[in-house]
Amino acid sequence: xxxxxxxxxxxxxxxxxxxxxxxxxxxxxxxxxxxxxxxxxxxxxxxxxxxxxxxxxxxxxxxxxxxxxxxxxxxxxxxxxxxxxxxxxxxxxxxxxxxxxxxxxxxxxxxxxxxxxxxxxx
Length: 122
Prior knowledge:
Elements: E1 9-14, H1 18-28, E2 34-36, E3 45-48, H2 62-72, H3 77-84, H4 88-101, H5 107-117
Parallel strand pairs: 1-2, 1-3
Helix pairs in contact: 2-4, 2-5, 3-4
């Protein structure tokens, strides 16, 4: 516990660039109530490097997010249609739109891209 009795925040750094990771560790290491996680230690939060190949301006509609969440659960187009009260044709349209926006080659790839970007949590 820190001085103000707030629970300590344990922060993990998942950054491939060693120089950037070291710089962040130095900067974050001096913040009261925050501790960097040891390798393999469970963390309260994680700082991850953004995938530079993923554009920042991908805007998904609420319906696309709904479809994406069900895709992440492994639902078929028919089940997604039933769950959301829309037609299978409309689901196919949304899946196609997701594949385009996320620059994905398939449903699994779309879910993986979205998870890496923090759009969904697996």
